[in-house]
Write a structure and sequence with these properties.
The complex is a heterodimer of chains A (339) and B (344).
Chain A (H helix, E strand, L loop, with lengths): L19 H30 L6 H26 L7 H11 L3 H9 L3 H23 L5 H20 L4 E2 L3 H8 L1 E2 L2 E2 H19 L1 H11 L1 H6 L4 H27 L1 E2 L7 H11 L11 H20 L4 H25 L3
Antiparallel strand pairs in A: 1-4, 2-3
Helix pairs in contact in A: 1-13, 1-14, 2-8, 2-9, 2-11, 2-12, 2-13, 3-5, 3-6, 3-11, 4-5, 5-6, 5-11, 8-9, 9-11, 12-13
Chain B lengths: L2 H10 L5 H5 L27 E6 L6 H15 L4 E5 L6 H13 L4 E4 L4 H13 L3 E5 L11 E4 L2 H15 L8 E5 L5 H16 L4 E6 L4 H14 L5 E4 L2 H14 L5 E6 L2 H9 L4 E6 L4 H14 L14 E3 L4 E2 L4 H4 L7
Parallel strand pairs in B: 1-2, 1-3, 3-4, 4-5, 5-11, 6-7, 6-8, 8-9, 9-10
Antiparallel strand pairs in B: 10-12
Chain lengths: 339, 344
């Protein structure tokens, strides 16, 4: 009884049945397109904006922008690889940010330690993830619908808790910690890097990762192979929930506020970054490195536009065009490298 | 500076609460081209070059689009202003990075209409620390140190103006039903508007009987109004916070076939003003919330960077805060406000 997340598909040559090593081998080929796209963007940036683009401060600006959505996207890579989808990430970020910054939480943080805020956000994120996972795996609600419900409910709950007001954080230790830099690299960027590295290791080097590929590729086969598909599904959504909690902490630190309007449309940004990165929307194939490149392409794009003072409407058109070009380029190169 | 220019500028800006006192002294009557804002003043002579960065939320409704357009148009009038406009966004994370880019670029000034004033405060503080003149527009920062000057609409006053007008129109009708369609409820500006409206109604013994909130967009206005009309079988007066969502509100009212009430608009779109002028719709009045705040921000940024003072004040420095007046536009004075109204 495990055909709960995706339809059962016959295995194809690209499915993990051929082994993790083949998949890793093809990962380099798939990422070539992304690297080319990113390098092209950087070349455009240097040509059009010169030193203003190729400046340490500007690179850090890009990375700080990428950090929050990047953490969500890494978590999203797991869920999509596992054959699911989560539309509620933006709402979970909002709810976590609000819950972690209520007067009660802040009072506790001031009495005890600022880590209370971090734990509150992570706990709320994880809780929402568990609910999503249980509804999908055990309640047998299609992921699209279950997370759509969470999208509405979580943002609504965030509005109720915050009374639709922006909550300002007055916990000195918290802001001081996240404002700092490690060897010139902002803490937010360090967190993104850590999440990405841990995500890569978990997906590519652990049993949990192999099970994720198996569940996403063919849940029925995975079940027959002895994997508890339902339990694994819950774990995947919980993992993404925790990532949303981390992103909420980062956003609270960056804005010094928690708000029910935080994280608007993050679900689309995250899904776009994951898919551009080369993860199959239907599951069974996923790459953390690709996702990180996807996020960087989006943020670099936005930065190049900002630097060049381009018209607002032209930016939107160009963004759409570049998304298509990036994906086409990546498909072409992936085919040539012969996975 | 000529006397005429002086009069014009006073008409264009009210500093703090002063304008209510000033209008009585304005020698010219309301009509005439001289009173329509955007006056040329001696300060307009080119000075040192000023690079200004401008960032605002996504232009998802007419007023917000007008903010950016008016700011651009204003900057083009000055040969000494170079304006950098970034993509409008409702994602605070992205807007913060836009301001960071301005800081990296070492612009002279930043005119910022934040999506969320509190959320953009840290990066505005960072810009001020980097020696950049930050002009805060419309939605206030959480710290007084985050901006050199702030240009604000009078949201509470807008509610008061609308409420006072409704009171005047419903004089003596103590059982009148008053309805309100608010904008985005999470914004402090919406809360201020509603409070002003309720306070003014309270003064004449009325209250808000039915209240719904929309999101400034046409589509949300239609939805909110349809619900409201279902909930209230009889209405005497309706205040809608924003003329852009008002397009949807009007559509919903048309669909319902109701016409027993009059409507007061908000923000002041050209559409609604034309309707008021023609007298052929439910709108009898609208309360202006100037869409030229960003343009005023550009002017103030330029003056502050060039070290000039605001022409009509004795004060040497540009003021800390400029709060714009929220006048009621009716058939009698619509010609004065139509030229600076925004197209939705």
């Amino acid at each position: 009884m495990s055909e709960n997340t995706t339809a059962v598909r016959p295995p194809t040559a690209e499915q993990p049945q051929r082994g993790v090593s083949a998949l890793l081998g093809s990962a380099a080929g798939r990422n070539t397109g992304l690297v080319v796209a990113l390098v092209l963007l950087c070349v455009v940036g240097v040509i059009t904006a010169g030193d203003r683009f190729a400046d340490v401060d500007n690179v850090l600006t890009i990375l700080r922008l990428a950090a929050v959505i990047g953490v969500v996207s890494v978590g999203m890579t797991f869920v999509i690889t596992g054959g699911g989808i989560d539309l509620s990430v933006g709402a979970i970020v909002a709810l976590s940010s609000v819950w972690a910054t209520t007067l009660a939480t802040q009072a506790m943080a001031n009495d005890a330690h600022w880590l209370v805020i971090v734990f509150a956000a992570l706990a709320v994120g994880a809780g929402c993830g568990v609910i999503n996972g249980v509804l999908i795996a055990y309640g047998r609600i299609v992921a699209f619908i279950a997370t759509l419900a969470m999208l509405a409910a979580a943002r609504g709950l965030a509005e109720i808790i915050s009374n639709r007001k922006t909550q300002i954080v007055n916990v000195p230790g918290f802001t001081a910690f996240f404002d700092a830099s490690v060897l010139g690299v902002p803490v937010l960027v360090v967190i993104f890097a850590l999440v990405a590295v841990v995500g890569w290791v978990v997906l590519n080097r652990t049993t949990f990762g192999r099970r994720t590929f198996a569940v996403g590729g063919n849940p029925e086969a995975a079940r027959l192979a002895g994997i508890d598909v339902r339990r694994h599904t819950v774990l995947l959504y919980t993992l993404l929930g925790v990532c949303c909690g981390i992103a909420a902490v980062m956003l609270v630190a960056r804005t010094t506020t928690g708000s029910s309007t935080h994280g608007g449309l993050y679900e689309l940004d995250a899904i776009a970054a994951v898919v551009i990165g080369g993860t199959l929307l239907s599951g069974g194939r996923g790459t953390i490195a690709g996702t990180v490149f996807g996020v960087l392409i989006f943020t670099t794009l936005s930065n190049v536009f900002t630097l060049n003072n381009l018209s607002i409407s032209a930016q939107a058109v160009a963004k759409g065009a570049i998304i298509v070009v990036a994906v086409l380029l990546q498909q072409r190169l992936a085919r040539r490298s012969g996975a | 500076m000529s006397r005429k220019a002086t009069t014009r500028l006073v008409a264009a800006l009210s500093v703090g609460l002063v304008l209510t006192a000033c209008t009585g002294n304005t020698p010219e009557p309301a009509a005439g081209t001289g009173n329509q804002g955007g006056a040329r003043v001696a300060n307009d002579e080119p000075g040192e070059k000023v690079v200004i960065g401008f960032s605002a939320p996504a232009a998802d409704h007419g007023w917000m689009a007008a903010i950016t357009n008016a700011a651009k148009a204003e900057a083009e009038k000055y040969s000494d202003v170079e304006l950098k406009v970034v993509e409008g966004t409702n994602d605070v994370n992205l807007q913060i990075s836009q301001v960071e880019t301005f800081i990296n670029d070492k612009v002279d000034a930043i005119v910022l209409l934040p999506f969320d004033g509190a959320a953009l405060t840290p990066v505005a503080l960072k810009a001020m620390k980097a020696g950049i003149t930050v002009i805060n527009v419309d939605r206030e920062f959480g710290s007084p140190f985050a901006a050199r000057s702030t240009v604000l609409g009078d949201n509470y006053g807008m509610g008061v103006s609308a409420g006072t007008y409704v009171c005047d129109q419903l004089k003596g009708k103590s059982d009148a039903v008053v309805a309100e369609i608010a904008g985005i409820d999470s914004l402090p500006l919406t809360q201020d508007r509603s409070k002003g409206f309720a306070d003014a109604l309270g003064d004449c013994g009325l209250k808000v009987n039915n209240r719904v909130a929309a999101e400034f967009t046409v589509e949300s206005g239609e939805r909110a109004a349809a619900n409201l009309l279902q909930a209230a079988p009889r209405i005497d007066a309706l205040w809608n916070h924003d003329d852009d969502q008002g397009v949807g509100v009007t559509a919903a009212i048309k669909n319902s076939g109701r016409s027993e009430f009059f409507m007061v608009g908000g923000a002041g779109s050209a559409n609604v003003m034309r309707e008021i002028k023609a007298g052929n719709g439910l709108h009898k009045a609208t309360v202006v919330y100037p869409s030229t705040q960003g343009a005023d921000g550009i002017r103030l940024a330029r003056l502050a960077v060039q070290g000039k003072s605001l022409g009509d004040l004795v004060e040497v420095e540009v003021p800390r805060q400029v709060e714009l007046f929220a006048p009621v536009v009716t058939k009698d004075n619509v010609d004065r406000y139509l030229p600076t109204a925004f197209e939705s």
